[in-house]
Structures are given as structure tokens and as C-alpha cells.
Amino acid sequence: MKKQFASRILFIAGFVILVLTNIFVLSGVASNRSGEPDTLIVLTERELRLKYRDSKENSGLALGLYWRVLSEDGENLHNYAYRSDPAWLDADKLEALGFNINRYLAGDSRSGIYRRLLSKEVFIVLENGGEPCKESLRRAQSAFAKVKKAYDANLHDEKQRFSFERAKERLYDEQVRGSHLFAIDAGLDPAQLRKKYADRSRFIILKGLVRPYIPSEKVRDKVSGYITKISTIRINVPLKHRRILDAVKADGPFYSSGITSPRYKVKLAVGSRYEPWIISVEKIEPIQ
Amino acid sequence: MQMNSKTDAQKRVDQIRSFQAELSIMEQEKIILLDDSKKSLLSNYHEKLIKTLSETFDIDSSNREKQLSLGMKIASFLGALGLAASVFFLFYQFWGRFSTNVQAIILIAAPVISLAATMYASYNEKTGYFSKLLGLVSVACFVLNLTMFGQIFNITPSPNACLVWAVFAFALAYASDTRLLLVAGIICISAFLSAKAGTWGGMYWLDFGERPENFFPAAVILFAVPFLPHKRFSGFDVIYRVFAMLLMFIPILILSNWGAISYLNLSSDAIEVIYQVVGFVLSGAAIWAGIRKSWPEVVNTGNVFFTIFLYTKFYDWWWDWMPKYLFFLVIALVAILMLLVFKRLRKTTIQNVQGVAA
After folding, report:
1. Per-residue pLDDT tens digits of chain B, which is 358 residues long
2. How far apart are alpha carbons A169 and A172 in whole angstroms?
3. DSSP class of residue B1?
4. I want to staple B57 with a disulfide (CB 3.0 to 4.6 A). Which of B9, B36, B194, B215 is the partner?
5. CA nearest B42: which of B26, B59, B60, B58?
6. Angle at Cα B17 formed by Cα B11 and Cα B18, nearest 5°?
């Protein structure tokens, strides 16, 4: 009898857990979306892309946030999300983000010191269509001009022809498909970052992970960091915004030949808890 | 004698069956002869006791029943896993066709309905197989509930989800006396505690696996839980202890071979040596404590890890320079040596028992 009573209490506790957890989660969502959004920005297919391949078992639709960094290396044009090391994420910036660089440098390096460095969650600032975007295009143009000159001087060289084709493709990518969204800064206090980057229609602040990286030599100047990921990289598309995207999906992926400009634009909001959501999706007429 | 759990009741019935078999042999060999009245008294008492226990705990009163029961347990386990996976895939298959409000209603309603069904089955079905099956589905629905909310509303992942899943699974495990749900609860709470240990160590919570030491607090806490009274629940204490030992010994085994991923600010070699010593000492201590406290699962787990630590070391030391026949001969000799040690230990234990009996 006593056991049955205890079991009844535990089942009721189960119901209470379910109800309270759902109230807590949904009130968090409501609080994120209430008031003035922290960011209200319009992005295109360049920055928010449909998945290249869909799972037959999953009927949901999400857009992936494509962001880039401008690395120190002028030739490196394709720094997309994976293990991106931006030029601005140096030793001083890492220390400002709370990493104890000197301690890492003083430690044992015999078995690969970089393994001891841990990721940390910080706030990342992403700029849409700013100076890094222009610089990236300039780099692609300059690389193309350099390769073209070498190819023009030796039209029968297979190697030169291959380099020329690659540079041409890179430049085309940069002009037509490359994301305009660049990670430009990081910090621990989102309010301070917002003060510094006040334009809410150009700068997005999102949570992300940063990790220090020490290349072969243990020299302070060589310490740099990379952004391992942005926490909310996939943005769910609610049913009411699916119509245009389903039609676009049927036309094939963004990288298909014949697609020469972004096919849709998305109005994206980021709330007080730095969680994004889609406000609207509009079709963009193709540029002939 | 008060019966607290199904395990206790089953033990008592098995004891009665053994007693009856032994008594029958003794009667055949004319060592003891009971007159009819005593025989009937004994038989009536046992039958009545078995009937009462069967009604209260749904125990198996014969070998045939036991075999069938095992089959039902396996079927119920597979059914629970299958149904839980099916709920996940069913939602994934169709959720894109619903509006956000409908998605939210389905996700909230699924665990509530399955919990109500679990509660109903628990009170109306004596064997408990259906309540266990539904209980696991209920936990799966709750996991789906929060995971999908995360996807639908683009919520930043949080370790607190593991905590609420754990509390929910524990509540159901204790309410329906289900070991499978207890395992689910233990996995979730271990993930939560390890993630928390990771954040205290300065890392992002989802990276907690990068430092195996993060699992130690969870291991210690889980090992301590069965010191609270658990007699009413079948085999819960065993599960806590086995999982606690896995959470302790697997990280030690990893660190004893790969010191670079430790929190300790020492050279990799020094860290590996420290954890090798810790591994041997703790597994030895587990065997000792298991024998002393009569915890067979602790003795067995300790034994397994002691052997793994030992053979890993042998591999490190001798695999490269020893001829293979000699390496395996050493392994065999060590196994024989361990056999002799255990035989001696067993003999000492038997002598102690006989001494106490005398």
C-alpha cells in the first residue's frame, strides 16, 4: 500500500516535471522574441542556404548560416565555417576572451600542447557586406589577375591553365555565390559589442565557440585562435515560410550551373537570448 | 520475513524449490523420513507462501515459468527500444507538414499521454511488462519534446535538458520499478554532472568528453547512491554500482594511455604513470571491497578492469620486443597465477565460513 502511494506520488512528479519544463522552455522562447530584436537583418541565399541533400526521413526544413572569416593569408579565399582562423583572433584578443595564453605556453608541449586548449563560449560579431567582404573580393580579383598574367605568357602550359581555371572559378564564386557574412570580432559582453557595432541591420551577434591554437613553435606571437562553431547555425523554417523555399529547392542547389544570383532573401531577427528566427522569406527575381 | 522487492520474493521461492528437491533426495536415501502430517503441513505452508508471493510480486514459481519470463523480458526490452525509436522517426517524417503551434502541441502532448498510459498500465497490469515499455516510450517522447523545441525555436543547447530528462527517467524508474529506465536516468544524470564538471573546469559544456576526468564526480555520486536504502527496488543498487565503476575505470584507462588530454598540468608520461597506478590500486580495492561487502558485481567489474590494466601494460612493455609465442605464454602464465591466487582466496573464505559455523 505504502509502495503504491509512493509510486503514485512519483508519477504525479513526472507530470509536474513535464509541465514545468515546457512552461520554462516556452517562456524562454517568448522572452527571446519579445521587445525589440537585437538584430534585424536581411540575408540572401548567399548567407542562408538550403541543405545540399535532404534526408527522406526528415520533413523539416532549415537554413544553414554560411559565414566566413578573413584570414591573414591573402591567398586563402575559402575560409568557410570549419576551423576558421581570423586574423583578428590573436593572442591579445584571446586573453581578452579569458584564455590564459601564458599558462599554455609554459606547459608541456611534448605530446601536442594544442590538445590541452579548450573551447570557450563567447559572443561573435558577424558583419554582412562590410569591409572584409570587399577585401575578400579584392583578393580574388588580384589572385585572378596574377594567374591570368602568367597564363597569358604561357598559353600551352597545362599547369598554368589549371591555375587559371581555378582562379576564375574562385572569382566567379566570390562575385556570385560567396557569403557576405564575415566574423569580425568576439567578446564576453554582448551589450558592449552591440555598443561598438550599433547597426542592427548589418551586425549580427550570436553565441559561438572559440579555441586557441598554437602552431608548431611555442612563440607568443604565433598563438592564434579559431572559431570552432556558431551555436545556432541551422535556422528552422516554419511552415508559413516554406512555399518559396520549397520551390527553390525543386530548382536544384545554389551551386547548380545556370543559377547566377541568389534566389531568395530572408528577414532574420535575433532576440534578447541571442537566438535567431525567421521573420519573412521573399523571392528574388533572377538577374539576366 | 518481510519481502521488499520482486527479487527478494523470487529468491525465497527458489530457496523453497531447492529445499523441496533436497528433501526429496534425503527421503529417497532414507536420511530423514517425515510422516504424512508433517509433510502436508510443510507442503501447505510452502504452497500458501508461493501463492501469496505470486499474487504480490508476479514471481516465477517454476523453471518453465522462469524461461518464459526471460523471453518476455527480452521481448519487452526490444519492444521498448523499437517503440521509442519509432516515435522519433514518426515525428521526423511528418513534422515539417505542421504549423509551429501544432508541432508544439504534439510535442507537449506525446510525453503527457504516454506517461498517463504508463501510470494506467502500472496499476492495471500485474506483470509490469507493458508499463515498462510505455515508460521508456514516455522518456523517449520527453527527449524528443525538448530536442525538437531546440530545433524549432533555434534554442542554444543547454546541459539542463539532461538534468530534467534524468529526473523524469528516475521518477518513472522508481515509480514502476524498472531497471531500463534507471539506466536511462543514470546516463542522463552522468552526462549532466560531467558537463557541469567540464564547465567548472573552464570548457564549453558539450566538449566535456575531451577531459575524461569530468566523469569522476558522476562516478563517485552514483557509487554513493545505493548507500541510501534501495531494498524495495529490484537490482537498482547493482546497476548504480556497475555504472559508477564504468564511469570511473573507462576514463582512467583512457588517461593511463593518453595523458595529453588530462586536466593535470604535468607531462603526458607522468600523467599516464599516475593513472596506471590509480587504475591498479582502485581495481584492486574494488575487488577487496566487493568480497568484503558481498557485492559480486563490484568484484567482477574490478576483476575485468584489473585484467585490462595489466594486459595493457604488458602490451606496452613487451609486444614490440618479445617474440609473439613468448608474449602469449606470459599472458597465459599470468592468467594461471591469477587463478591460483583466486583459488587460495576462495579456500581461505571457505575455511573462515567453516570456522564461524564450528
Report:
1. 566 667 777 788 888 888 888 888 888 888 888 888 888 888 888 888 888 877 777 677 677 777 777 777 788 788 888 888 888 888 888 888 899 999 999 999 999 999 999 999 888 876 778 888 899 999 999 999 999 999 999 999 999 999 999 999 999 999 888 888 999 999 999 999 999 999 988 888 888 888 999 999 999 999 999 988 877 787 899 999 999 999 999 999 999 998 888 888 788 888 999 999 999 999 999 998 998 888 889 999 999 999 899 888 888 888 888 888 888 888 888 888 888 887 887 777 667 666 655 5
2. 5
3. -
4. B9
5. B26
6. 90
Residue that is written with C-alpha cell 566566413 in the block: A68
Query: Which of A39, A114, A211, A236 is the best substitution to test chain B (most B C-beta atoms within 10 A)?
Result: A236
Task: At B7, list the grid cell.
Answer: 527479487
Residue linked to cell 510535442: B107
Whether residue A130 contacts residue A184, with contact meaning beta carbons closer than 8 Å, is answered with yes
Nearest to B50 by CA among B105, B10, B92, B100: B10
Amino acid symbol at A36: E
| A59–B138 CB contact, under 8 Å | no
Closest CA to B148 of B100, B114, B196: B100
Q: Please give, rounded to a whole number of angstroms, the shortest distance from the CA of A281 to a CA of chain B.
A: 16
Q: Sign (positive/negative) of CA torsion B129, B135, B136, B138?
A: positive
> A72 near B108, Cβ under 8 Å?
no
* Cα distances (Å, whole numbers) of residue B231 to A165, B60, B168, B236: 75, 20, 21, 9
Chain B residue nearest residue A16, CA to CA: B168
User: Which pLDDT tens digit goes with each residue over B315-329?
Assistant: 888 888 888 888 888
- Amino acid letter, residue B263: Y
Q: Tell me the three state secondary structure of residue B128.
A: coil
- Closest by Cα among A102, A107, A97 to A211: A97
Q: How many CB pairs under 8 A join A and B?
A: 138
Query: Are residues B168 and A22, on separate chains, in Cβ contact within 8 Å?
Result: no
User: Are B115 and A15 within 8 A, CB to CB?
Assistant: yes
- Give the rounded distance of the alpha carbon of A196 from its chain centre: 20
Chain A contact for B199 (CB, 8 A cutoff)? no
